[in-house]
Design goal:
Length: about 400
């Protein structure tokens, strides 16, 4: 997961250099990011099928080859189409690795799903923190093409080696939780799609993930337009430009948020944790739009936004495991994860909205409203829907004719 992170999180460093070299419109370049996310997310249900069929080792090894190939293609690209193809290949690779690792964590740790998935997803969220500065430095000294090539081979090689240490739990090796509110049976994908809970989760996931996706793709652009990109931050023991420092801090906060909020949700429940996190993100984004012209405020508030956004990948996957069981979780969470693909469609729209209104505040306030709406759903509709769902599954799970019944508590 650490080795795959730069495919998404370091992209913003390359966009200005690609634009400077080829002179393309910013929105046209960002289509590559949208394609990456669409491929990564919309193929997740298919990847879930292959995870169940071939197991985690083959899937991650294949994904590792794809993430290496993606950046090698980017290093040779001289047209927008070339970058779009590289983005699509990268989306396949990251999707295979991400879906497999999250799926495995859900299966191994039923009583600590929030923390286990949070730590796993945290590798993806914080994975680029250590390489943001080397990548930025290499782009400056050697150009973005050589940087794509070198780090593509490095990241792909590391992920390929790690693949062979993975395995799924054997039958009877893992016991279900006896203290968490979890379904009493394993749902099939078709059964999950027929529940109100699934569609409510998909709506909330989409609302929250949209803001984070827009921030990930556009943070460098926002910093430039707010006039803080080149500001030198003097922390006495080192001096760094505001944007690379913000990116590094954001990766760390993003990585911390996933196990932190996942651990919290294991103790106070997924719904209450969602209310806290989604409200924090919405307020943070509003403040970023209002105070973002101040370099120090930009640093702090962008960190708050990433802290409150990263947790969606631990909370929704853990909740999916609780609600629908783990036998078919690869397929079920694969479909739920398409919320990220839906959110990615709004990334280019953010550019267009900014150009139409002349300010990023309009975009940020719109996204904040979506976050606060999700928080409202988490405090009102989600608890009732989840309680009714678990109660219904308990009745169905205890029926003698339900072959899909399981020992989930």
């Amino acid at each position: 997961m650490v080795a795959t992170a730069n495919i998404q999180y370091a992209w913003t460093l390359f966009v200005p250099e690609i634009q400077k070299t080829f002179g393309w419109e910013r929105a046209a370049i960002q289509v590559a990011f949208t394609l990456f996310v669409l491929v990564q997310t919309w193929l997740a249900p298919i990847e879930g099928y292959f995870i169940d069929k071939f197991g985690p080792r083959i899937m991650v090894a294949f994904g590792a080859i794809c993430i290496a190939l993606a950046w090698v293609l980017n290093s040779q690209a001289t047209t927008l189409t070339g970058f779009y193809v590289g983005a699509a290949v990268g989306g396949v690779g990251v999707g295979c690795i991400y879906a497999t690792c999250i799926n495995n964590a859900l299966k191994w740790f039923p009583d600590r799903r929030g923390l286990a998935v949070g730590l796993t997803a945290g590798g993806y969220g914080a994975g680029s923190a250590a390489t943001i500065l080397p990548i930025a430095s290499m782009i400056e000294t050697s150009g973005f093409q050589e940087t794509f090539f070198f780090f593509g081979l490095l990241q792909g090689g590391l992920a390929f080696i790690a693949a062979w240490f993975l395995r799924s739990p054997k039958k009877g090796e893992v016991k279900a939780s006896e203290k968490l509110n979890q379904t009493r049976r394993d749902y099939t994908l078709k059964e999950a799609l027929n529940t109100k809970l699934f569609w409510l989760m998909l709506l909330m996931f989409t609302c929250v993930v949209t803001g984070g996706m827009m921030a990930v793709a556009q943070l460098g652009v926002i910093a430039q337009d707010l006039g803080v990109k080149e500001f030198k931050v003097d922390l006495h023991f080192f001096v760094m430009a505001a944007l690379p420092l913000a990116l590094m801090l954001d990766r760390i906060m993003n990585g911390i948020s996933r196990p932190l909020f996942g651990w919290i949700s294991d103790h106070i429940g997924r719904e209450k944790t969602m209310v806290i996190a989604f409200s924090l993100e919405g307020i943070g984004i509003i403040a970023l739009g209002y105070f973002g012209h101040n370099p120090w405020a930009f640093l702090i508030l962008s960190g708050v936004v990433f802290l409150a956004w990263g947790e969606v990948y631990s909370l929704f996957s853990a909740l999916a495991g609780d609600a629908f069981g783990t036998k078919h979780i690869g397929k079920i969470y694969g479909v739920l994860y398409t919320a990220k693909g839906i959110g990615a469609l709004f990334v280019p729209v953010g550019n267009l909205l900014m150009e139409a209104t002349g300010t990023w505040s309009t975009v940020l306030y719109t996204v904040a409203a979506m976050d606060l709406f999700a928080a409202f759903l988490a405090i009102t509709l989600l608890p009732r829907t989840l309680k009714a769902h678990v109660a219904q599954s308990s009745i169905a799970g205890s029926a003698p004719d339900k072959g899909t019944a399981s020992a989930h508590a």
